[in-house]
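[retry 2/3] Methyltransferase type 11 domain-containing protein: previous attempt timed out, resubmitting with same input.
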Amino acid sequence: MATATPALLGALDDFTSRENWDKFFALRGGGDSFEWYAEWAQIKAPLRSLLLGAEGADILVPGCGSSVLSEELYDLGFRRITNIDFSRVIVADMLRRHARARPEMRWRVMDMTKMQFPDGSFDFVLDKGGLDALMEPEVGTELGMKYLNEAKRVLKSGGKFVCFTLAESHVLDLLLPEFRFGWDLSIQAIASERSSKSAFQTFMVVMVKGKMGVVHTIESRLDENAKYCNMKQANAVIHALQNENKIRESHTSGVDVLFSLRDLQLGAIGNLKVIVPGRRRQLILGEQGSSLYCYKAVFMDAKNQTGVFAYHCGVFIVPKARAQEWLFASEEGQWVVVESAKAARLIMVFLDSRHASADMDVIKKDLSPLVKDLEPEYPEDTDPIPFMMASDGVKQRDILHEVTSEITGPMVVEDVVYENVDGDQSCSSEKMFRRLIFKRSSGLVQSEALLISESPSEETDNKSKNSSTASKKKNQKKGLSGSKNSLRIDHSYLGSSYHSSIICGLSLAASALTAAVSSGEKVSTTIVGLGAGSLPMFLRGCLPFLDIEVVELDPMMEEVAKKYFGFSMDEQLKVHFGDGIKFIEEKAVADHGTSAHSVPNRSDSNAVRILIIDVDSSDLSSGLSCPHVSFVEDAFLMSAKKFLSAGGLLIINLVARSSAVREMVISRLKVVFEHLYSLQLEEDVNEVLFASPSERYLEIDHLDEAAAKLKAMLKYPVDVESDIKNLQKLQ
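[retry 2/3] Methyltransferase type 11 domain-containing protein: success.
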């Protein structure tokens, strides 16, 4: 057996290049074999055990190269072996070497990412380094995914895909999810010669093609292989398998799992080409890099398939303003929509803040390739999938102000009236809302406030200052409940459901807050991010014992908040302009010094503190819409921990574009903070995280009682006792 010289290896700058492989094999010359890793003596026993009794099986060896694998198997009695490689040089050499000695073995020049075999042609596909070669980190996953799709396609039901691999993390990140649904997977380490522990450990992964949609946990034999296995490599693999098995267990737990589009393509819910009456699943469409936006969606096959349908498949878009209505938010209501849409399959797509000002044609163009993969098979119907849409919910819109800030970018202040607010058809009861929109973040509705009628005394006080405005706009709001001049912001109203989650989560510190009220102490509350000032104004009125300081980077936000959203400051509510990260870092150092043994300088060092991070991010490349990635980096989290002393709450409004980014944020918080909780209302894209450095001040064991304590302190109504049921401790 030959070894690879530096000159030979230099020919393989790119393992995915046909020309490079032709050059490699031409330089080596013909007549001998070459193994990248895992010699025949090492893999013979586990492979023979796997193939026992299957001498008549059809075996495919993709990317065969000049390995001895095929000839050794042939000599053991496995005659129906087909070898493919895209290098004409090596196929010609192997055919010349084996045509007479092994006449039944076949050799073909073929790209293993584009195989020319019918579906279900083989009982075994034996891959020895082929997947690894396609998965060079700088190349990405495209070729690897194409190859795996082909390998799965050409296997018979019950067939086995056997992969000899170094099991590097980027390979497992593709391999394990791709065989999650409908495959039984096991893995073992391959022993090195003379039981020595090789620098590069080879693993044998076996995937058995089973029933579509069935999920099995992975069988690992790596602990059994410890005596001859490179355990440094093996431990990394074991960790990856543990994480994958957690995901697989969640799919078998009966919980309503949120699938990805790729999960469905892999058969997570069965064959997508076939309508299954009454099938309903929740999923996320789109991901960073493959689409402009991500979308929450519900996949539904009509319960009654005996009627006449207008469409075999349709898309129904639900705007953010209507997402909480019973018709769209409840499963029962969604089935009503399916029936009324007269579609055999309906994909209900929910828009949220990320899509607020996006052009609907752009949304449809973005969705079209995503929903195409969910279309059932109807050969006679070649029409494109139709898009249906509920009204965007805005009955009337009046733009009050447009301005561009050097820091925040273009902003819009508008008054809107939604259609059928609270289901009330009466024109006299129409409600008007004032919204602040950040155009930089795909039209993010940053704040929404309720406008209500002023009392007669307020109206008289404001009449003179508003008279000029009234003369200009007196005809703009006919038919609404009062003229615009008699309307003011209702600061007792929470326009964002995640704000309710923030209030609810304060139950975690209810006893400490109660003690502060009893003693007449103020509770230090810092909010990073002013927006339109809705949250700090609500907190000031709802919990008057809070001493609130808002940190805002953009001075223009204060101008907008004051002029259009009734924001005001006093001794209880102050605004500091500057970088929120630097502010917290400087405060933490001032309070506690730079040393872990420094004596605290705070006079209230024993009092509970609250720190709220409520900022969006203009940089979506990080995968975070809220907050900016800097607020979840280790340096800031450590400053926040020091800022909170031995107790208190760090509250983060989180909007992640992918589960991987969310998990990254969660893992970082877990490293720094001893306690971590999450609260997310079902219809909300925002998730609110609550972190604390210690149990001090926390209500952990009796959250219902804590919620009742908090509710008793609130001056404004918030459904704390109901929302607290959604609070979850993150282990």
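[retry 2/3] Methyltransferase type 11 domain-containing protein: Residues 1-9, 421-428, 462-482, 595-600 have pLDDT under 50 and may be disordered.
[retry 2/3] clearing retry counter.
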